Each structure stands twice: as structure tokens, then as C-alpha cells.
Amino acid sequence: MDLLSLRCFQVVARHEHISRAAEELRVAQPSVSRTIARLEAELGVPLFDRRGRRIRLNQHGSAFLHRVERALGELEDGRRELAEAAGTESDSVTVAAETLLTLTGLLAGFREARPGVAVRLRQSATDSMAYLLRTREVDFCIASQPLAGPTLTSVELLREDVLLAVPAGHRLAGRERVEVAELEGEPFIAPSQGHWQRVLADRLFAQAGIRPTVVCEGNEPGAVLDLVAAGLGVTLLPSMARVFGGRPSVGWARLEAPGCHRVLSLVRHKDAYLSSAARGFGDFALPYFRRLAAQAAHRNLSA
């Protein structure tokens, strides 16, 4: 059992697909199959259930994967800690977020404060974030949905209302109280499944006993306000979008619904080694978002 075999198993377990794992590992597919077969022979149990060309991680594989991820994570932490102590690795921090729009202002300020730190970004769905943290592929995740797990720790960066954005002149524009049921039949612009706005919208519509009429579904948050302004439909957006990115051709309303807010959190693996650059990023993020919230509150009062 060597590190290459364990890394191969980890990638195959994530994809549950030999060909995709081979592509990521940049090796031939037969080599991946042989590596997994040797590992199973050495352990004395199958790690995957096989049905034709399909493979699924079984109970033995799931238990082993948990140990493998812990072991490889510890080794990666050790490598990074020694590299930083020896000065052989450049200062860097890697951050994942559902939408990179959330990071633009934060990164501009951080780069000005720490110009020598290289920042690497990953766009990731929430359901992949825990894996990225466990495998040390990222130092932090900035998430708009709860990330649960005994090895994860998080700090709240920002809590804000989620508003209904509508085309200017829409019947609901400017309303302080809009029932979700009033949106039945309205053309709705929604992110793809799994995105925090879609999760929130699906929950609110389900509670109201109606289904959204989705006319646009995609992963370009920066285009949503322009689509609303063009009259394509209505959508849910955090209040920051009105304060810092509002358009005259977009109106706003407040939904009368419990839990209609977003909580932005900075999440990390509690046992992972954080370089001085990563610690600096974490220390910078919290006061940055506090200042942002204060600026938003001031603009709302001035409006």
C-alpha cells in the first residue's frame, strides 16, 4: 500500500467512475483498474460494488475512504508546515465560493493589505465544499448554506435579507410585504439546483404550496440583474445587490416569509494546517464583511 495507490483510490471513490478518475490522474484507464484491484487484494475486501461498467463505493470502501482522507490530509498538512518553515513555498491561500462575485471586493482589499500573497480561487457548489476542505484542496470556503461536519468549523461573516427583484413598474415593485403565494405564475429567474438562492426559493415555494415558473436557469449571477431589468422575470437576490449593484430599471420588494435571508460563512477544516498567509486571509475577512454590512446599512438609511 503506497501513497499513489491511496491517492488513486481517493479519486476513484470521488468520481465512482474509472475513466473520469483516469482523466484527473492523467494515467491510462487500465492502470487505474489494476491499482484498485491490487489495493482490494491487499486489504482482502472489495471497496466497490461493480455492475457492468458502473462502480459504487460500498460500506468497506466508505470506511476506508474516511481513513485515507484523514491520512492524506495529515501528510499534506505536514508537507505544507515544513515547506513554510523552510521558506521553500510561496505565501498563498486558496478559497472556494459558490459565486466569485462574493469575493471581488474582499480580494481587492486583501491584495492591497498583503501584496505578497498569491490567492487561488475555486468556484464550487456547496455539496463539494466539504470534500475540498477534507482533501486540503482549499484553505477556506465562503458558503451561503450551512456546511455541517465534525471536522468543520465556521464563523459568520454576514447576515442579510433576501429581497425580490422585479422589473421597474412591476405590480410588486416597492411593496414592503409580498406573500410568496403572490408569485404563482410569475416568470422566475433561478440559479441551477444546489445554489443557495435556488435552495431558498425551492423551500419558500414549497412552504407556500406552489411551484415556481422557471423561465431561466443558469450559473451566471452577474447577469441576473440585467435579465430582470430586461423584463424576463423576477428573482431572489441578497440585499447587497440592491445597495451596491442596483439598476434604475429594477424594482425591489420584501417577501413575507420566515427565514428569507442569507448567512455568509467562512468555513475551514478545524484540524488543517493554515499557513501565515491563510491565517492572514481569515483575519482580514471578518472585519471586511463587518465594514461592508455597516456601509450597506448607512446607504439604506440615506436612501
Describe the structure.
With 303 residues, this protein is of the alpha/beta class. It has 2 domains: 3-81, Orthogonal Bundle (Arc Repressor Mutant, subunit A), CATH 1.10.10.10; 90-303, 3-Layer(aba) Sandwich (D-Maltodextrin-Binding Protein, domain 2), CATH 3.40.190. The chain has 10 helices and 11 strands. It has helices spanning 3-15, 18-25, 29-43, 59-86, 104-113, 126-134, 196-208, 221-229, 239-245, 276-302; strands at residues 48-51, 54-57, 92-97, 118-123, 140-143, 152-167, 187-191, 213-218, 235-238, 250-253, 261-269. Strands 3, 4, 5, 6, 9, 10 and 11 form a 7-stranded mixed sheet that branches. A two-stranded antiparallel sheet has the order 1-2. Strands 7-8 form a two-stranded parallel sheet. Strand 3, helix 5 (104-113) and strand 4 form a beta-alpha-beta unit. Helix 1 packs across helix 3 (29-43), helix 1 (3-15) crosses helix 4 and helix 2 crosses helix 3 (29-43). It is globular, with a radius of gyration of 23 Å.
